[in-house]
Amino acid sequence: MTVTYRPRPSVVRRDSGLYGYERALARRGLSPIAGVDEAGRGACAGPLVVAAVVLRSEIDGLADSKLLTPARREVLYDRILATARAVQVVVTPPEEIDARGLHKCNIAGMRRAVAGLGCDLGYVLIDGFPVPGLPAPSLAVWKGDQVSACVAAASIVAKVTRDRMMTSLDDLYPQYGFAEHKGYVTAGHRRALAAHGPSPHHRFSFVTVNSVVRSGAGGEIGDNELGAGVL
Fold it and tell me: What range(s) does the RNase H type-2 domain occupy (predicted)?
């Protein structure tokens, strides 16, 4: 009789610290480990930015990007780029989101980011939802940017990259306030859309923008210029 031995599964407690997943996977020989996260999924303007990060060593102060001040994110962003084993960023523009759909673009961006790391991976940790077709075993981790160091690093890289892009857009389109709300829906952003109509960097397939276009607000863009579908 042939007996197949499998390694005893690791149980990672959510209170085991930000490096708990990485340490458990490393003990099983499943390294290097990539973390993947995105920024801009819920925005109605600007790109979707996906980042994948393989850390080389532990970084003090690492945390979910949403829990950090902008200044602290910038400091950690520089530290991640200076010390990480590999970092890859994929930017998907609004017109591609309109044409293909947000979730498809998110999945494709995560695959591209992992593939672009340029190293053989032992495991991939993804924030939120599973991504099929990755070159290594993977796990979708609920609120992964709060419990996994490499996912937290990816969230910081994606967030800082996108925030810088939105701040640059604010220089070109100051009437929308992109530097303040970064393309997310706020009362001020709604008022700007109603007054000026959408910019070329808005996502026309999103309900907030689509409704403005159909109402004729701003008078700049007609229905024939809409993207695909309404989310």
Answer: 31-218
